[in-house]
Amino acid sequence: MTAHTRDHSRRRRTTDPRPARHRGADEIENFSASFTALGELAYAGARVSASVLDLTTGLPLLSIDDRIALPAASIGKVLLLVEASARMTTREASGYGILDKTADDLVGDSGLWRRMQVPTLPIGDLGLLIGSVSDNVATNVLLRQIGLDAVRARAESLGLKRTALLDVVRDKRGPDDAPQFSVGATAELAWLFYALSRGQVVDSVTSRRVLDWLSMNHDLSMVASAFGLDPLAHRASSHGLQLINKTGSDNGVRADVGLLQGRSAGVAYAVIVEFVDSSLQQRLRVLEAMRAVGHDLLEYVY
């Protein structure tokens, strides 16, 4: 009963409104640089959202418009990985342990399987491809087997109200398609990674498997660019830092969600920026602001 009450309280913190806040300048931890950097983007017309939770207490360290649902690009693939991992845990994947890619699954952009000769892969390898290189073909194959309804039902069962996977990956979106691949609220996404770190997403086995897939992520171009880690090899702790994250990129969208553990503390974080991607300068300003958030996170955990 006590554990259930704690879980309910944590989920309530991701849905109840609260004003943006950060620790004051007289305290050791200060996220004012994050507020300044993201605030400048907002004043310039971008929509920004950010949430940071302390891994030990679960308490918020930073919250900026963290209840609003924004386009989240590939971040929604985490929900697919959760459902796939849950089915592997209960052995429900035994009937389709090896899946085929078809012509309907083939899309461009991120991933490797489109260029690989192998036509079939085990479900665990699909999870690895999605976690490491955000593979779009692997996403569509796995989603075709599992179904959007199952992924949505799993997200709802976790208490996620503003975070959802809406569609398959498409090269072009028509008027009859969902306008976005996924949407997310940073408060919910930070909580999701916090819960994964504590083994509370479905169960500990399911949570660990999802984190194992995501620990291979190669994209450290956003918030994680401040951590000085090797993009291709950072599963082990490096100089006292350990990162697990998932990123999302689309036209006018940059998102980074993850866990950062340092020598003195750990955090779960989520940052999403929706902006007019009209020039390289605009895009670089967004990436620089996300890197500023990363510097604040690094100072907090190190």
TrEMBL record:
SUPFAM superfamilies xref list: beta-lactamase/transpeptidase-like
Domain of life of the native organism: Bacteria
Compositional bias of kind Basic and acidic residues: 14-24
Database matches in Pfam families: Beta-lactamase2
Domain Beta-lactamase class A catalytic, chain residue ranges per copy: 51-273
GO MF term set: beta-lactamase activity
GO biological process, one term: response to antibiotic
InterPro entries: Beta-lactam/transpept-like (IPR012338), Beta-lactam_cat (IPR045155), Beta-lactam_class-A (IPR000871)
Disordered: region residues: 1-24
Gene3D superfamilies on file: DD-peptidase/beta-lactamase superfamily (3.40.710.10)
Protein name according to UniProt: Beta-lactamase class A
